Amino acid sequence: MAQVAPFRGMYFDTAKVGDLSQVVTPPYDVIRPDEREAFAAKHPNNMVHLILPPAHPGDNPLENRYTRAAAVFRQWQQEGVFRRADKPAYYYWETRFSHEGRDYTRRGLAALVHLEPFHKGIILPHEQTFSKAKADRLELFKSSQAHFSPIYALFPDPANQILDELAKGASASPLLSCIDVEGREQLVYPVTDPDIQVAVYQALKPLQLFIADGHHRYETALAFQKWMKERYPLTSPRAPFNFMFMYLANLYDPELVILMAHRLLKGPRLKNLEVGGIVARLERHFDVTPLTPPPGDNAAYAHYIQGQLAAVGQSDTVFIMVGFGLKAWRLQLKEGVRQKILAREMHPALAALDVAVLNYLVLGKGIGLDAKALDDQETCKYSSKLEEVIHMLASKEARLAFVLNPTKIDQVREVAMNSLVMPRKSTYFYPKVMTGLLLNTILPGEEIVLPGEAG
To answer: What pLDDT score was predicted for residue 314?
Structure first.
């Protein structure tokens, strides 16, 4: 039983900060160091000061980047930088954007969701996580005791009744609106009508929720919940630390867009790589075709690579390998390999994934990276932007890259329904849910009230 509750959202006071586009950011895990500095310089109240606080020499357990972020958060509250809603609300959230020449409007619902261990089958993951990232976010949770950004999750509603019902309660004008850093329009409307809240709560109650983006933060929220229960053993089951701030969208929404996080490899584990040996090993399972990218800038190179991937189609498993001086090869999985090799090693729902083929036959068998290497964020980097991938190779920030097609939404559903997990960064739900439009502060003495079940 999913418990999806309204909450008293916290948000920037535009009378204090001005244009919201100057203070909201993408999630912490897609902000590069140079982008972090640009956001920090953009506005003194930009969210990177909270979600990506810098380390200082001499940091210790009592004074460090996390305690400083918490102190900044407290200071901003005291200065009136944030406002907090008087009444619990569901927040109807529209994101309007363009992708590959088409306009989209993704609709969502911001709310608090009761934390559930994965084995209960109420909230389901679909990706593996990085150990280091979870430890980092847990320390920020402990110090700040706030949800700075929502997890992005999906619920199954083929008739789209839930968001249609919620939209009925939205006012004519949004509470919060801005054009974000990527040029997307963000519109947020609180919905406080008690009847609509009850209808939405009851409709969501029997549904499973699938985590789309934010696996690290969800697992961190479970660890934070355990830590808080030890500190406050007599608090109510409806204490805020038993809930997580989420953005919920419809799994069947035709406006959902998934991109692929392309793989970039670097570091000492790759120092002895030799192109002839890699190609020879890959030829056991792939038809390997050398490509001849045209001379030109990174944008032209990226366009050519994308065209080579698209020419084969998404029904076949195809990768583009780029490296060794920006040389490129197309890797097409040989007929029968999936059935003969992958189907023996893993569940059919995983064997069907391009990213599983990449991890097992290319990164594992072809290059020799083990599970520890794939968990090392210094060895394996990710980017959904092909031009950025080419730039990182050209500037020697990465040595080798693999470009691949996106995972399909029905594959995400199939993996989650079978209680399986995909390799890390198998999906990039686009666009990311912005950080800083809504926040949730965690006050242990408060209780979350469920619609229709007050008291």
So the answer is: 62
CA distance 106 to 257: 9
Q: Which of 450, 439, 433, 436 is nearest to 107 (CA)?
A: 433
Integer angstrom CA distances of residue 75 from 37, 42, 65, 352: 21, 19, 15, 50
The half-sphere exposure of 395 on its side-chain side, counting CA atoms within 13 A, is 10
Instruction: Give the span between the Cα atoms of 222 and 232, in whole angstroms.
Output: 15
CA 82 to centroid of chain Cα atoms = 25
Q: How many helices (H) and strands (E) does the chain have?
A: 17, 21
Mean pLDDT over 177-203 rounds to 97
b/e sequence 370-382, b meaning 16+ C-beta within 10 Å: eeebbebeebbbb
pTM of the model: 0.88
DSSP calls for 350-378:
HHT-HHHHIIIIIIIIIT---HHHHT-TT
Strand partners, 247: 110, 152
Q: Which amino acid is at 226?
A: K
Residues whose CB falls within 8 Å of the CB of residue 270, separated by 6 or more in sequence, listed in order: 367, 379, 399, 400
Q: In the predicted model, is pLDDT for residue 366 greater than 70?
A: yes
At 251, list the tokens: 């799994």
The amino acid at 47: M
Q: Which segments within 192-303 are labelled E, that is strand?
A: 209-213, 243-250, 257-259, 262-265, 286-291
pLDDT of residue 263: 94
Query: What single letter denotes the amino acid at residue 211?
Result: I
> What is the mean pLDDT of the segment spanning 14-23?
97
Per DSSP, helices labelled H in 115-248 are: 131-144, 161-167, 194-204, 215-231
Domains of the chain, earliest start first: 4-257+432-441 (no CATH), 261-405 (3.30.1760)
Strand 146-147 relative to strand 151-155: parallel, antiparallel, unpaired? Answer: unpaired
Least reliable range by pLDDT among 224-228, 238-242, 407-411: 407-411
Question: pLDDT value at position 126?
Answer: 72
Return the half-sphere exposure (C-beta side, CA atoms, 13 A cut-off) of residue 52. Answer: 22
Residue 313: the pLDDT is 66
Nearest to 298 by CA among 386, 396, 381: 386
Which tokens sit at 435? 């950080």
